[in-house]
Amino acid sequence: MRYIALAGAAATVFGALVFAPAAVAAPGDGTGAGLPAAHGTGRVTHGVAGPATAPVATYNGACGAGYGQDDYMNVTGGTVFLTYNSTNGYNCVVTVRTTSGAAVYMDAGIKLSGSSTWIHDSGQYTTYAGPKYVHAVGQCIDWYGVIGSSTAVQYNSHCG
After folding, report:
1. Which of 12, 21, 45, 71 is the most buried (most CB within 10 A)?
2. How many domains does the chain have?
3. DSSP string, the chain
């Protein structure tokens, strides 16, 4: 797993110049308009404490029976989990805080790569946002999570 941490600057990633905005607005309108633009395959993270070798939060089982943890991205204050159910072909995303507390803005979103419509759950939450699902057998997905002003997003991933 490789994390790319960018904050209002240009960086060279695998030989390509990548630009990131200085701030990322949360996509509260469902369009994903506030998310960083896709720069090919990979992750873009903002406000992340740094790459981690393990999730900083614990997956809470919110996606339901039959869903196994497939991937994760840490954000400041928690972790965005991607799960998959091989029986029904659905991916699920949930953003989980490290510790519950006063409500903060949170968001969890997922979509088929190439689609312009995010399926997401956003609001003021004390513990987690989501779950949200997309059927993606044989297709790539884009997924993201937000806690406060910390955002992590992955484009063109988990294809198949």
Report:
1. 45
2. 1
3. ----B-SSSEEEETTEEEE--S-----TTSS-TTSPPP-SSEEEEES-----SS-SS----TT-TT-EEEEEEEETTEEEEEEEETTTTEEEEEEEESS--S-EEEEEEEEETT-S--EEEEEEESSEEEEEEEE-TTS-EEEEEEETTEEEEEEEES--
